[in-house]
Amino acid sequence: MNFDLTPEQQAVRSMAREWALAEVAPVIHHFDETHEFPHEIVRSLGKTGLLGALVPEEYGGAGLDYVSYALAVEELNRVDASVGITMWAHNSLCTNHIVLFGSSAQKESYLPRLARGEALGAWGLTEPGSGSDAAAMKSRAVREGDRFVLNGSKAFITNAGVAEVAVVMALTDPARGNKGVSAFILDRGMPGFAVGRPYRKLGLHASNTAELVFDNVSVEAGRLLGELGMGFVNTMQVLEGGRIAMAAMAVGIAQAALDEALAYMKQRSAFGKTLAEFNGLQGMIADMGTDVEAARLLTLRAAALKDAGKPARTAASMAKVFASEVAMKAATKALQIHGGAGYITEFPIERIFRDAKLTEIGEGTSEIQRMVIARDILGLR
Ligand SMILES: Cc1cc2nc3c(=O)[nH]c(=O)nc-3n(C[C@H](O)[C@H](O)[C@H](O)COP(=O)(O)OP(=O)(O)OC[C@H]3O[C@@H](n4cnc5c(N)ncnc54)[C@H](O)[C@@H]3O)c2cc1C
């Protein structure tokens, strides 16, 4: 067993950290307060190559391994999770679905633009009436000659209002249940394809989340992504990688909470001592440090399994459920360590605390991850 990162993996981590500290840290408070989408930051992120992290080099991407990708995701989220989730939905969901299941023509048409960040991607599975039970979707694509006519809607879609490209799932054969779901690639501006107003959210204020609405959208057969009827099955594979990335996102948020707690404890005094000298608070820090390290190890192990081409579904769900709960616990403890200062918006921990919660919900809730893990370890599949 080797815990050392390669020089290339270390270089990706350093680059992501330096970029996030230089480009995001100085301005993110403004975007969080105003709920504005940071277009300039995302354009700059495109120049680093990280919006093509999972895209093979032949299509203009960085072709990173999953360990490198997880390290980059962690470092971005350590600075800000709104930029982090924007990058995650673009890379792990939309772009990766095309990487894994796109035809050569689809890859050539979409991947170079997505990899350079000239087009941002969104991915729509969730609907107003179906989230955890995603196969209960209602969106319907009906074949008419060499086209499909798409009707329905998608809820809570990251990047919906800022994406040029969206991969969406719809029923093509409702009688076949989850074997009757297909995926399609849509472009912004297609007639009948609309975006709702951005939701006002608890956290991740600088990310865009909105509804996608399909009203008789005429979709050429060439926009079918993967085989007809395989959209749901393929989605499960997309989600496996996505869960590793969301675990890395949670590790970054948890590390940010720890960073903030450490800095505050060293500068704040009470009863003639710095907070760092109180045993009660030292215990909290010890638990946070241990939890963050355990979450990171689970996440990097799942990423390493994926890189080795080994089954990673259980490991990805374990990493995701553990890391997201560590993020929430670490953010809660770090806010407590800040006392009243933690409850006002001047200190980053208030934003980190709000942002952390999403990691227990998105990409499959903690309850759904536990269901996946239990079925796998009980051998119930
Ligand atoms: C900010 C944000 C960004 C998102 N981005 C995207 C995106 O880009 N693309 C996309 O497709 N979706 C996205 N989502 C949707 C997200 O994936 C869903 O919200 C999530 O999967 C949960 O679905 P739901 O909200 O419908 O909750 P529900 O499925 O209604 O669940 C409600 C509660 O019931 C529990 N529950 C449900 N079924 C079971 C069960 N069998 N056993 C035990 N408990 C259960 C859940 O764990 C939860 O606690 C996003 C959501 C948010 C908030």
How does this model look, in words?
The chain is an alpha+beta fold and 381 residues long. It has 3 domains: 7-120, Acyl-CoA dehydrogenase/oxidase, N-terminal domain (Butyryl-Coa Dehydrogenase, subunit A, domain 1), CATH 1.10.540.10; 122-230, Butyryl-CoA Dehydrogenase, subunit A, domain 2 (Beta Barrel), CATH 2.40.110; 232-378, Butyryl-CoA Dehydrogenase, subunit A, domain 3. The protein has helices spanning 7-24, 28-34, 39-48, 66-79, 81-101, 104-116, 231-267, 279-307, 313-337, 348-356, 366-378, and strands at 121-124, 140-144, 147-158, 165-171, 181-187, 193-195, 209-220, 224-225, 269-270, 273-274. The chain has a 4-stranded mixed sheet, with helices on one face. It has a 4-stranded antiparallel sheet with strand order 2-3-7-6, with helices on one face. A hairpin with a 2-residue loop joins strand 2 (140-144) and strand 3. The two termini are 30 Å apart. It binds flavin-adenine dinucleotide. The site of flavin-adenine dinucleotide has 22 residues, from strand 1, strand 3 and helix 11.
Compose a concise summary of this entry:
With 381 residues, this protein is an alpha+beta fold. 51% of the residues lie in helices and 15% in strands. It has helices at residues 7-24, 28-34, 39-48, 66-79, 81-101, 104-116, 231-267, 279-307, 313-337, 348-356, 366-378, and strands spanning 121-124, 140-144, 147-158, 165-171, 181-187, 193-195, 209-220, 224-225, 269-270, 273-274.
pLDDT < 50 runs, ≥5 residues: none
Count of β-strands: 10
Helix content: 40-55%
Bound molecules: flavin-adenine dinucleotide
Total helical segments: 11
CATH topology category name of the largest domain:
Butyryl-CoA Dehydrogenase, subunit A, domain 3
Radius of gyration: 21 Å
What fraction of residues sit in β-strands? Answer: 5-15%
